[in-house]
Here is the input.
Amino acid sequence: MSGLPELAALRQIVIEAANKAGLSEICLHPAESKADGSIVTALDHEMQALISAQLEARWPQYLFMGEEMDHGEQARIVDGEQRGFWTLDPLDGTTNFAMGFPFYGVSLALVIDGEPHLGVVFDPVRGECFSASAGGGAYLGDEPLKTPSVDFALRDCVANVDYKRLVSGLADRLVRYPPYRSQRNLGSCVLEWCWLAAGRLQLYLHGGQRMWDYAAGSLILREAGGKFTTVAGNPLDCRKFTKRSVIAATSPELHALWLAWIRENQQPWGK
Here is the structure.
């Protein structure tokens, strides 16, 4: 789509904000609990303020929606008549960040007509910036990013699985009879999407993500060659504000195998 902001400009805004806020500093950070039980730090708010100010100054034609905004305002933007808006997760993996666990990131996407058209995810610890534009490919830094062409069998894969948001029957089956080689849960959705796109993981399963968790990362994975849907096999778009389940893989073929196993095993064992 012509007339969109330049991807390089978005990368610069995100990276400069993260550097200014000091997100790469690995230490304990004070945190407070939010109404939904998750936590927030002062840097979540600082990052949101820094990035939103830049976006609103340079591209005022797009509304801005950040994770730390009021829920009613978020819903008004998503459900409104405006064709395009920004969605930002200013610090995903806040628990990791607060505890000094070095795996967290910043995610920014431009959503138009329910679809992400631009996406940037920045890892301030490793200095890795993932980005993509719809139809324009995915990148790690300035280098094109493609999922590996290796033909993985399901049993040879490493899967990132968030157990706590899965129904108990499925979680139990995954623990007792895993179809993959090994499992991880790294605690930052936005980076997990990108590590999948980079081939560092092959499978992904998450029971509930908000739009700011998946908008940029799903675009990066798709442009890199991976595939994703909800657990029900439905498209994962940005037209719904509610939490969405995610099942993803580094290739369409692997996604089909992974989805088939999930469908066969998502009911409690014996039923």
